[in-house]
Specification:
Elements: H1 8-17, H2 28-47, H3 52-72, H4 77-103, H5 109-136, H6 147-172, H7 185-190, H8 196-202, H9 209-239
């Protein structure tokens, strides 16, 4: 696509037309909010001449500043809104990098690798930021709350690693990855506790710390329950793969 002959609006339309399909159980926020916002950012980044890796770098920077604010500032409405905005913006740019790659004719394995590495660091850093906030502000946070972000960290890492491993093993054994099917609203709503965008949004409640802690704990319990059910299914999927000879 030529940026000199194509308007911003046409670029957005082109992205919408080429948008990959929704996974049947894709979390609601990611589908309804993050992807459209990422599309707008992608069009702007593409017209500015940014590469997909540069957009990934912007995503990482926004997320890093958000995490820094999380543990450097006392919990308040101001810090909470700032953390939410920075993390959500980083998440939107995370959606934008792949869309910029499509506008430029396709991504590269190195770009995909970088995107996954940044995602992995981000998953760790956000929960460690909550833990650091508890540790550095023990006069504000109840001590027992330090357990929740550490447990959430384990769940998040396990979920992310296992999904990547599932796809890798299927490809190694010559099994086609599942293509997006008919969108399932019920599954999408049930997957909300696992949605990174909802986790970002939860930090708005830092101004009312008990509410934040309650909501954060609910997200953890929902994510743990989702992972427990998913692990059973994923193991059965692995059992169904053909054995290597």
């Amino acid at each position: 696509m030529n940026t000199t002959t194509t308007s911003y609006r046409d670029t957005v339309r082109s992205l919408a037309a080429a948008q990959k399909g929704k996974a049947s159980g894709a979390p609601l926020y990611s589908v309804m909010v993050n992807r459209p916002v990422g599309r707008l950012l992608a069009a702007a980044c593409f017209r500015a001449g940014l590469t997909p890796n540069q957009v990934t770098g912007i995503s990482a920077l926004c997320s890093a500043i958000g995490v820094a604010v999380l543990f450097a500032m006392d919990p308040s409405w101001v810090s909470g809104i700032l953390v939410w905005f920075l993390l959500a913006l980083g998440y939107a740019f995370d959606s934008a990098d792949g869309q910029v790659a499509r506008l430029r004719g396709g991504g590269s394995p190195a770009g995909e690798w970088l995107d996954h590495v940044v995602d992995c660091v981000k998953i760790n850093a956000v929960h460690l930021g909550v833990f650091a906030g508890v540790w550095l502000n023990q006069d504000v946070w109840p001590n027992w709350t330090a357990v929740i972000p550490l447990a959430f960290l384990v769940v998040g890492n396990t979920s992310f690693f296992t999904m990547i491993l599932n796809d890798s093993l299927k490809q190694i054994h010559g099994v086609a990855l599942r293509k997006p099917g008919q969108y399932n609203w019920k599954r999408s709503v049930l997957a909300l506790p696992t949605d990174y965008g909802i986790l970002c949004l939860s930090f708005v409640l830092l101004g009312a710390l008990p509410l934040f802690l309650g909501f954060y704990a609910v997200l953890f319990i929902g994510s743990l329950g989702h992972l427990t059910l998913a692990l059973r299914k994923w193991y059965r999927d692995m059992e169904a793969l053909p054995s290597k000879r």
